[in-house]
Amino acid sequence: MIDYHALAPELLLAGTVLAVLTVDLLRVEKYWVAVVGLFGLFLSFIPVLTLGFCDTLTFCEDTGTRFLFGESYAVDSFSLVLKALFLGSAFVAVLLSVGYLESDRFWQGEFYFLMLSSVLGAVVMASSRDLVTIFVALELVTGPTFLMAGWRKGDPRSNEAMLKFFIIGVLSAALLLFGMSLVYGTTGELTFAGIRAEAAGIRGGDLEALFTVGVLFTLLGFAFKVSAVPFHFWTPDTYEGSPTPVTAYLSVVSKTAGFVGLLAICYLAFRDATFLWGPALWVLAAASMTVGNLAALRQTNIVRLLGYSSIAQGGFILVPFGAAVAAGVTDVQLEEAFFATVTYLLIYAFMNLGAFAVIIAGGNRLRSAEIGDWAGMFGYAPGLATMLAVFFFSLAGIPPLAGWFAKFVMFRAVLSVGGGWAAALAIIAAVNSVIAFVYYAKVVKSAFMDPAPEHVAVADLARMPTVPSLQFALVLTVAGVIVLGIFPGIIAEIGELTKTFASGF
Amino acid sequence: MTGWETLLTAAIKVAVAFALLLSLTIVLVWFERKIVADMQNRLGPTRAGPYGMLQTVADGVKLLFKESVTPRRVEFALYIAAPIAALVPALLIFLVIPIGRPFTLGDRVIDLAGTDLNVAVLYVLALSSLAVYAVVLAGWSSGSKYPLLGAVRASAQMISYEAAMGLALVPVILFTGTTSIRAIVDAQAGEFLSFLGIWNIVLVPSFLIFFIAGVAETNRAPFDLVEAESEIVGGYHTEYSGFRFALFFLAEYINIFNISALTTTLFLGGWHGPTFGAPEWLAWVFPIVWFFVKTVALVFVFVWIRASLPRMRYDQLMQFGWKRLIPLTLVWIILSTVAIGFRRFGAPWG
Amino acid sequence: MVAVTAGDWFSTPENYVFLAIALPLVFAGWRVVTSSNVVHAVLYLVGALGGSAALFLLLGAEFVAWAVVLVYIGAVVVLFLFGIMITRAPIGVEVELSHPLRVRISAALVSGALFVLIAIAALTAFGSESIPEAEVTRTADIGQSIFERFVIPFEVVSVVLLAALVGGIVIARRDPSPEEIAAGKETL
Q: For the whole model, what pTM was predicted?
């Protein structure tokens, strides 16, 4: 029998997807579509909790990891944590979209439908433990986002964003699939556990070369998805051209989904091939941090700046992977690296969504994304400017905001491995943290210290309210960033859970 | 059977099928002209041969000897390929249709079908979906506007109705539990009221949808906008003449026969029918007769429809296909799945 | 799997069938990307897909083979042709599609290097093995595995398709004008 409790989040979310489509057909205010979507997200969050706290609940019998469909679908603490992350981020992303979509002529119902479909893909992805499921789930994550990127139909930049994103996305999917086909061809297995078992026998044999090619292509495919340098060139244009809530969604949910795939593939399927993915991801991590940060320094458009910033943050998230470059890396160190990546992803979701919430709120007033126009925001919108400072400093990693803890575990993971290469990566990361601080601080300084430009009608802007949904999103994210920054124990606790995943195999 | 025997029987079957289809076309064209004439109170062909039966032969001979005009702006390779692309799938589809009971020759059992495939239903759908290439290629390579318009209409129409056609077969496959055409025919054997088999026609909506979509697939009236003379001359084959036109014409009639034969096979019990207690040496004749009787009856329906219904408007065609036929098919699939589930597994609560 | 030597290769009839399929397939694939006429490129794509369907048949995968014909050749590529014809896209020779020589050379180098890499890897891996005699797969077995082992990917794909359908229509359709919205005829 199928364990319906284990599948409940997916089933509820799938139901929500269809419900959203149905509500859109009714002649009601499109606002209600979003409400249904939010409610559905909340509803599918409940089984995530019941599954997570299964051992303390009376009606819940099975505890521990649940495997479905022959080890190809697993519900364990790692997948539950990530599901919670995806559902939560999607909740905020929907909140960000409401005001934005109301502000201009957009197709609204379909937008929420696409966004929730994409979330469904991410939720499935967290549990995927075989190549077919993970690929199909990844396609469900990215497929709808291609369309959402082009949602400003009249805007050529949005069209460009959609097209670039689509073409690169298809290319990366092809690479990924090709790599997976080689991995399947050489190991004869689809499940990660099976691949890991088979891969041991491949070392040193005839199949090793082809297997290596397969692994590298698979990594390459995911590198596009997480926009790691040098596979990032679509990112700034897509982020800038897409509707801003879509950008927020892309930079958090879609990107995290890519990292989840990378985590599952690297730590489960290719666990014994650290010598393959370690160096490859070391290079990607170093390049992403450096290129992302250096390019961000020169940006004048705040969305583009966050685009490059998210490339750089992606580099930081990749750092613990790169730490596996050292020969003879132990299981404990790998677990630490795994923990660091998951922790970073959790915190990154809060602060990046928050940063985008501020940008959307500011953009609503200013109708401009030029950093120059944001100067003097403290004068007329002190609350918003403060939040801008909170999120940007958190992204920069300043205590007591959550970002510091993310950076801290990242450094701890890479330093615990030790050795020249890991140390070099740590140094690169440290230098980059400093560079990042420069451009984050520059924006904050401009918002607080500089006078508002003359064409900005300060008096009018001061009276403009922030949309309630956006306020809600801001409160959620600010609370998250501050609470997690001051009590990082919470997130450490959650991250700790996922270690069982890394050690479980 | 040894390899050579297999090869030989295959070659004979293909040759027979080819000859059969060609001669059938000749008969069918005459048949259609006579019926339509009758329905319109005319005489139809009367001169060539008894009852004008040789009229089609005469027409065919004329087309063969007529000059094949090649307009200046054609893409020659594709222009030539198009009629062939029309004919080949039509001929290939017929190969999986059993026209009679298998008969024994010495110790060998020979199927009265070109071949049988595990996935014959899929094969039929796949090949009928290729027919659209002939239309598109003809329209595009002619380098002229009416053919292009005809081709655009045709491809839209064929894609639309193909979906309904394929979906209509889903309940049949569920009902019989197989995708092999031979097995589907076998599943319809058996006696009901001592002479009727339990035919798949009990899936009435499937039967109707399949047949309607089949009419549309063959671009016949009332779905013949593809070659609506009053609007776009001859449609995609405007620029074809002589032998090349004859190939299109041939393909069209073979397709009509194929659709009728498929409907017979899938819904009307194929070659099954009463043999009236005939002795064994004669018994194999009846199935063939039954098969052709049923098929020709369906061809008659084709002609009947053509003679009675006016041509649809293009938007009506699309509306009918997408907004009526396909949703209806989907609802029917759900209903029949439930019913078949009950039949096979019993009530979930029982 | 049985190890084979070069001598065996020429004595196995399947290999000639394979060559007869594979060589046109490669040629068609090459022409897909080099044709300067869009319609020709699409038709070569048909050839390439037909070749891959034939290879599936050779491997005994009847269902996949006919599914490729039905879905790709019969529907997807037809829609390409259809799209080319109903949009105002140029349907003749398209010179602008050709990149400058510099780009073409580097593209050729990259793909050539990749080809050599994969070919060498594949040859070392499987070069000395022959494919075991293919058993024709039963459609029922495919259905069984789709609805049991692979039911999650199967359902996920259905959501992908639904999303693509809905999103594609939104992107492609004409937006109602503000007047139409104000008049209540259309909604967004």
A: 0.89
Contact C124 A139 (CB under 8 A): no
pLDDT tens-digit map of B68-88:
778 777 888 888 888 898 889
pLDDT band at A136 (very low <50, low <70, confident <90, very high): very high
C47 lies within 8 A of chain B by CB: no
Domains plus CATH for chain C? Answer: 2-136 (1.20.120.1200), 138-188 (no CATH)
In whole angstroms, what is the distance from residue A149 CA to residue A251 CA? 12
b/e C31-70 (16+ beta carbons within 10 angstroms → b) = bbeebebbbbbbbbbbbbbbbbbbbbbbbebbbbbbbbbb
Evaluate if residue A48 carries a pLDDT over 70: yes
List, in sequence order, every residue forming a beta bridge with B112; answer none if it has no partner: B100
Sign of CA dihedral A424, A429, A430, A432: positive
Distance from CA of C50 to the nearest CA of B (A): 11
Average pLDDT over residues C44-73: 90
The secondary structure of B296-310, three-state, reads: HHHHHHHHHHHHHCC
* Touching chains A and C? (3+ Cβ pairs < 8 A): yes
Composition of chain A by helix, strand, coil, percent to 5: 80, 0, 20
- Position with higher pLDDT, A135 vs B99: A135
ipTM surpasses cut 0.85: yes
Beta strands in chain C (DSSP E): 2-3, 129-130
- Both tokens of A372, joined, read 């120059």
Nearest residue in chain C measured CA to CA from A69: C149
Q: Hey, are the CB atoms on C156 and A120 less than 8 Å from each other?
A: yes
Which residue's entry shows tokens 């046109």?
A: C24
Say which DSSP state B102 is in: E
Contact (Cβ atoms closer than 8 angstroms) between residue A17 and residue A120: yes
Res C1: pLDDT = 41
pLDDT at C159 over 90: yes
- 3-class DSSP state of A428: helix
Cβ neighbours of residue B195 closer than 8 Å, sequence gap 6 or more: B273, B274
For B67, left (φ over 0), alpha (ψ -120 to 50), or beta?
Answer: beta
Domain ranges in chain B? Answer: 66-345
Yes or no: say if A138 and A121 are a contact pair by the CB < 8 Å rule. Answer: yes
Mutate to test the interface with C, among A105, A116, A134, A216 (most CBs of C within 10 A): A105
Distance, CA of A218 to CA of C31 (rounded, Å)? 28
Which residues, 6+ apart, have CB-to-CB distance to B304 below 8 Å? B35, B39
A482 CB neighbour count, 10 Å cutoff: 16
> Among the residues of A367-467, which ranges form H helices?
377-380, 382-396, 403-417, 420-448, 458-463
- State the DSSP code for B236: G
Name the more confident of A118 and C178.
A118
B226: number of Cβ within 10 Å: 26
**Dihedral Cα A340, A343, A344, A345, nearest 10 deg:** 120
**Mean pLDDT along residues A442-463:** 82
